[in-house]
Design a protein that fits this description.
The complex is a heterodimer of chains A (234) and B (224).
Chain A: E1 11-12, E2 15-16, E3 19-24, H1 31-42, E4 48-53, H2 59-67, E5 75-78, H3 84-88, H4 93-106, E6 111-115, E7 132-138, H5 145-148, H6 151-155, E8 158-162, H7 167-170, H8 174-185, E9 190-192, H9 198-217
Parallel strand pairs in A: 3-6, 3-7, 4-5, 4-6, 7-8, 8-9
Antiparallel strand pairs in A: 1-2
Helix pairs in contact in A: 1-2, 1-9
Chain B: H1 2-9, H2 25-30, H3 38-47, H4 49-64, H5 72-80, H6 85-105, H7 110-116, H8 124-132, H9 135-138, H10 142-164, H11 169-178, H12 180-192, H13 205-215
Helix pairs in contact in B: 1-10, 3-10, 4-5, 4-8, 4-10, 4-12, 6-8, 10-11, 10-12
Classes of the chains: A alpha/beta (234), B mainly alpha (224).
The structure holds guanosine-5'-diphosphate and magnesium ion.
């Protein structure tokens, strides 16, 4: 049996396998809420599934199931042996198993969202698991987070500056935070998001739709944000 | 290749999902096991489940070297010796990771293609046997394979203990060394098994019960 599972564009019945989109970022920045928002926006038009990674098995999965945005059986949680970091990067076995099981049970799927068990700023997805990844930070973490950098901030396919509705309360200048992020990312996109701002949520959904088009056309190349990029202090 | 392959097989960093497994420690801790009893748990596993696991892997390795490769008898014998369903499921989940690695290394090798021909997912010892039979890439002797399986069992418990019963990581090296006589006899027993019928049924009732309890538990860190 040929080994297909790690080729990004395995065709089955002439169509590439589901796009796997990782969502990483520190705890509490809004990853699960983003998954819920994406399911709400895209499930009517796409066949979707979700995999969550938690320190304790299934907190995120339970949150998403109770949000009622996808049939509950399409939301799986994996055990990470207290190492959510390892499970999305050094050894992605448990996550691949979950993605394959979902594909087998409900496929063909268009989009599988994988939430990292966010522990800190350095955890990013291996391209062996995710074709593309969002990295999520929030204004409540402070205006400096984007400038401090880290592989997710500098290299994720899309950086989200979340909870912009809270900016006035935490005295953060969103425009400046976005500008800092853009400067750190060398042209990669940044999106200011709030679940209270429907236009920003629509923009996020459009970004995912456009990514899916590129994935299906075979022109999206998964890139690894990897370790911190070498940089100079001018 | 043998010596290096044997080290790779027993290396917890082998990316086949081992970090999600505690080799029974988390279920035992939930049932009240304390840190001072970890050496006793290691001894118990070396006299029970580890013998069956290592012997199953050795039988699978030998089957992999025959033509045609037939794993069914050892797969069935192993399943029959894991009475708790969650244990069979976990073994199949762990076997799946090893199978994925074997497919990546040698997709067309008869030892690997025969895994897909099983009616169910290969249990972990079967997948390990297949992996160990990949002569040019991963070939090991039966003794090396049995040592790797036993070593992996010990290290899995020790690594999970750092998460579940925190203490000085250096302690765990001492635990493993103290378990050496039991580890060596587990290897010897495993190597002496010649046929699937002769596979020892070394199950332990408490291990079974804990595995059943664990499968129903919420907020776990490890698969089993
Ligand atoms: N004000 C505000 N709160 C948000 C927003 N998105 C998420 N949250 C809240 O932030 C907290 C953490 O969100 P969650 O999605 O669980 O974060 P995760 O740990 O990254 O998955 C929850 O209390 C959410 O209700 C947002 O856009 N605005
Ligand atoms: Mg979450």
């Amino acid at each position: 049996m040929p080994d297909h599972e790690n080729r990004p564009h395995t065709h089955h019945a002439g169509r590439p396998r589901a796009l796997r989109l990782g969502v990483a970022g520190p705890v509490g920045t809004g990853k699960s809420s983003i998954l819920a928002a994406l399911c709400r926006a895209l499930a009517p038009e796409l066949s979707m599934a979700v995999v969550t990674n938690d320190i304790y098995t299934d907190e995120d999965a339970r949150f998403l199931r109770s949000a009622g945005v996808l049939p509950t059986e399409r939301i799986r949680a994996v055990e990470t042996g207290a190492c959510p970091h390892t499970a999305i990067r050094d050894d992605v076995t448990a996550n691949l198993d979950a993605v394959e099981d979902l594909e087998e049970a409900y496929g063909p799927l268009d989009l599988v969202l994988v939430e990292s068990g966010g522990d800190n700023l350095t955890a990013t997805f291996s391209p062996a698991l995710a074709d593309a990844q969002l990295f999520c930070i929030d204004v409540a973490g402070g205006g400096d987070v984007a400038r401090k950098g880290g592989p997710g901030i500098t290299g994720a396919d899309l950086l989200i500056v979340n909870k912009t509705d809270l900016a006035p309360h935490v005295e953060v200048d969103v425009a400046a935070m976005v500008a800092d992020a853009e400067a750190a990312r060398d042209g990669l996109p940044v999106l200011a998001l709030s679940r209270k701002d429907p236009a920003s949520v629509a923009e996020l959904a459009d970004w995912v739709r456009a990514l899916l088009v590129r994935h299906r056309a075979g022109v999206h190349v998964p890139t690894d944000p990897g370790p911190m990029a070498p940089h100079r202090h001018a | 290749m043998g010596a290096l392959a044997a080290l790779l097989l027993g290396d917890g960093r082998l990316p086949v999902g081992g970090h999600t497994y505690s080799a029974g420690l988390e279920p035992a801790v939930a049932a009240g096991l304390t840190r001072d009893r970890v050496p006793a748990l290691l001894r118990a596993r070396l006299r029970t489940t580890a013998v069956t696991e290592a012997a199953g892997a050795v039988l699978a390795l030998r089957a992999a070297h025959r033509t045609p490769v037939a794993y069914e008898p050892v797969q069935r014998a192993l399943a029959a010796r894991m009475p708790a369903a969650p244990q069979r499921e976990v073994s199949a989940t762990l076997g799946r990771g090893v199978h994925r690695l074997a497919r990546r290394l040698a997709p067309d090798h008869p030892a690997v293609t025969a895994l897909a021909g099983l009616g169910s997912r290969p249990l972990r010892p079967v997948a390990f046997g297949a992996l160990g039979a990949l002569g040019a890439v991963m070939g090991v002797t039966a003794a090396e394979l049995a040592h790797a399986v036993v070593h992996d069992e010990l290290q899995t418990v020790a690594a999970a203990a750092l998460k579940l019963l925190p203490g000085d990581p250096l302690d765990s090296v001492a635990w493993l060394l103290a378990a050496r006589p039991d580890a060596e006899s587990a290897v010897e027993l495993a190597l002496a098994v010649r046929t699937p019928d002769g596979l020892p049924a070394r199950a332990a009732p408490l291990t079974e019960q804990w595995a059943l309890d664990h499968a129903r538990r919420e907020r776990r860190l490890f698969l089993a």
